[in-house]
Each structure stands twice: as C-alpha cells, then as structure tokens.
Amino acid sequence: MELCKKEDCLGCFACMNACPKGAISVTHDRLGKTIPTVDANKCIYCGACTKACPVLNESEYHITDECYAAWTKNENDRKNCASGGIGTAISRYVIDNDGVVIGTYFDDDAKLIFDYADTPEQLERFKSSKYVQAYIGYSYKKVKEFLRQGRLVLFIATPCQIDGLNHYLGKKYDNLITIDIICHGTPPITYLKEHIKAKCADAKITNVTFRGENDYHLCVYSDEKLIYSMRSDMDEYFMTFQNSSINRDNCYNCNYARHERISDITIGDFWGINREDLKEQYDGKISSIIINTEKGKKLISMLDKYIYMEKWDIDIAYRYNNQLNNPAVPGRYRETFVKNYEKVGFEKAVRKSGVSTAIAIKKAKDSKIAKAVKKVIKK
Ligand SMILES: Cc1cc2nc3c(=O)[nH]c(=O)nc-3n(C[C@H](O)[C@H](O)[C@H](O)COP(=O)(O)OP(=O)(O)OC[C@H]3O[C@@H](n4cnc5c(N)ncnc54)[C@H](O)[C@@H]3O)c2cc1C
C-alpha cells in the first residue's frame, strides 16, 4: 500500500492507527522526523491507511470570529501552565463530568507521549507546553475506545494531530471535544534528547519543562530535582526552536496555520493584548480562545466556574500571532543546521550554525550590563 509522500507526511500516525493488521510502524528520516512505513508481508491492501490520511483526503475546516482573552480561575494552575491555563481548566471540567482527557507528558525515557487522564492527579503531568513533537502511538484507537464506551472525551493536541484523529475516526461523535493549540512547528524528539544528553550527561530524566513556573526556561529534572535550567535565549535548543530553525520540514508548509481551524476550540498565547483595555485587572499570562464550532460554543458557556473570559477582537490575535495566518518561515540557523546535523549531531550542528556564538555574545553583553548596573548602584 502506498502512503502519502514522505515529504508531505505530517507524522500524525492516523494510518498506523487505522491499519487492521498492525502492518505500519515508525521509522525516522535523516533529520529525525518520524515516518510510517508499511510491512508488505503483513499488508492486506484494504486501503484503511490511505482512507485515514489527512494528506490524501479533504479536511473539514471551521471559520469564526468568536475570540476571547482568558485565564484560569485556578491560582495554582496559573503558575505551572503554559499560558492562561485554559487547556488544564477545560480538562478539569471534563474530568469533573466523569470524562477523560488525552494529553501529553514526558515518560521515563524523556520521550513525549500521549496518554489519558481521568483524575485531577493524572492531569498534573499534562500541564504546560512541551516544545517538541509528541508521539501519538496508538492513542487515536484509545480515543475511539472511550468514545464507544459513551464517555466524554477531550483531545488536546497540535492541529495536525487533531486532523489525524478526525480522519482516523471518519465520523462525528457528540461526546468528543477537540482543542488545538496554536503551533509554530514541532522539532523531532531526537534533537531534544541529544541536547539534554549533552547538558545532563547520563542522568535519569524524569521531566522537562519550557513554560510554567520557570517561564521560557528549559528545565530538566531528575527525580524531581532540577538539574539544568537555562533561559530560552541562552539555551541552544530553546533558542533555535523559538526562531523556527529546527522544526520538522513539513511544519514550514503547515496547512493548519490559517484562520480556518479543524478543532472545536483553538487555544494559544494572547500576544499583543493591551492590559489596560481589559475589564478585569490582571497581571498573569493571558490565553486566546477561539471558538470554532457550535459544540465548542456550548462547552465554553459551561465554564464560568473554571475560566475568566472577555470577548476580544479576533484581528488582534491574527495580527500578533502569525501562526494563525501562515506557517513558520525557516529561521536564520536552519540551512547550516540541516547541512551539518546528519554528520555531526545536534550540539555540533547548532554550534556550526552560529547559535553558540550568538549566545556567547548575548552572555557577554548581559554581564557587561550587569556590571554597569552594579557600578551605578555602588555609586
Ligand atoms: C510546539 C508548540 C508550539 C506552539 N506555538 C505557539 C505559537 O506560535 N503561538 C501561540 O499562541 N501558542 C503556541 N503554542 C501554544 C502555547 O505554548 C500553549 O500551549 C497554549 O497557549 C496553551 O496554554 P494553556 O496554559 O492553556 O495550556 P495548559 O493548561 O498548560 O495545557 C497544555 C496542553 O497542551 C498539550 N501539549 C503541550 N505540549 C504539546 C505538544 N508538544 N503536542 C501536543 N500537545 C501538547 C498538553 O498535553 C496540555 O493538554 C505552542 C505550543 C506548542 C506545544
């Protein structure tokens, strides 16, 4: 069976979930991107894989102008969620209503995987953004199982993963809610693993965070102990992620980076908002919520206990959040990085691309400024 072209593959794994014979497995291309491959000996040519592929089939998009500035009413979540804690707040609603949430966390092997949570305790590990591609595995199958049991299911993921689920399911379920996170691209997990190994040697990694309490820091934990913490503009991985130099190739042609959305609700950071225009005074992180479907609208109307929301002009979200308009453009380090990665690995490839020099200059400037400030204070 012929799957979609390798260069077009989103890595959504809808084909692998759809295959009735378990004939599809995952390999990696030279840049670490996950690619499904068919075992010809097991394939029965039923076409389930190609029918479930979002690249080979039309997707259903929704367009709306219903947009809110929002944040969770749960003070603790405000500290350790990515932005306004909306993903977690809606998850809490679902769990309070005996539902189940599908989200991501780092497993014992520092691999970002999807799993489910139906208690508030299990939900803790899903909190916050992980700036790397999450491994879907067979989680669409799990979603279907829960849906068939009649449970309320919330699936939160990047737009391509939501679309993978939509195509895999092939029909609408009243008890499924989908939330996509605004996404400017996901690097393959191999880069992050190599980077952590370089920074933390062979320590057993139990968690990695990018946002939350140490916002915009790459933090690596071993048995709950923080063993590495670096500001985003001083860390080679975080910096190259932020300037879009290490995304998977297909992220630069992302079909989901546009006004039309494929989920019930879209959430992201609300950049460009003028706090003085808020009705409620607030100095924490603010999320944007875009309501795409009637189901999303109904759900949001029930969240007063969980979320503070103010209607906001969607054009502000479009203006300041480019991933609602266009895919990310390859960053300034990408070309050299790609040229070198296969030969020398992540750390050396970023060094060769000039990232380390840029960081060293920034550090030097920072320490000069710090010295000057100290001098002034002394005076
Ligand atoms: C790779 C990536 C790129 C992003 N780029 C942008 C951007 O350009 N503009 C913007 O406004 N926002 C972007 N975001 C979204 C933003 O960082 C927050 O995730 C979003 O605002 C939700 O915050 P929250 O506090 O409501 O979520 P929380 O309450 O902290 O919940 C986060 C939810 O996101 C899920 N999640 C986290 N990481 C991943 C992942 N890698 N794959 C799938 N699911 C994941 C978690 O499982 C959890 O359910 C990006 C997120 C990711 C993961």
Element-level helix/strand string: HEEHEHHEEHHEHEHEEEHEEHEHHH
**Sheet of most strands:** 8 strands, mixed
Q: What is the mean pLDDT?
A: 95
Instruction: Work out the strand percent.
Output: 15-25%
Q: Helical region count?
A: 13
Number of strands: 13
What bound compounds does this protein have? flavin-adenine dinucleotide
Strand order of the largest sheet: 5-4-6-7-11-12-3-13
Q: Specify the overall morphology.
A: globular
What structural class results from the helix and strand content? alpha+beta
Distance between the termini: 75 Å
Query: Uncertain segments of ≥5 residues (pLDDT<50)?
Result: none
How would you describe the overall organization of this protein?
The structure is a single chain. With 379 residues, the protein is an alpha+beta fold. Helix content is 34%, strand content 19%. The chain contains 13 helices and 13 strands. It has helices at 14-18, 48-51, 75-80, 86-96, 120-123, 139-148, 159-169, 189-200, 236-242, 294-300, 314-320, 334-352, 355-378, and strands at residues 24-28, 34-38, 67-72, 100-106, 112-117, 153-157, 176-181, 207-209, 217-222, 225-231, 265-269, 287-291, 307-311. The strands form three sheets. An eight-stranded mixed beta sheet has the order 5-4-6-7-11-12-3-13, with helices on both faces. Strands 8-9-10 form a three-stranded antiparallel beta sheet, with helices on one face. A hairpin with a 5-residue loop joins strand 4 and strand 5. The structure holds flavin-adenine dinucleotide. Flavin-adenine dinucleotide (FAD) binds at residues 81-88, 103-104, 126-132, 134, 156-158, 181-184, 186, 267-269, 287, 321, 323.
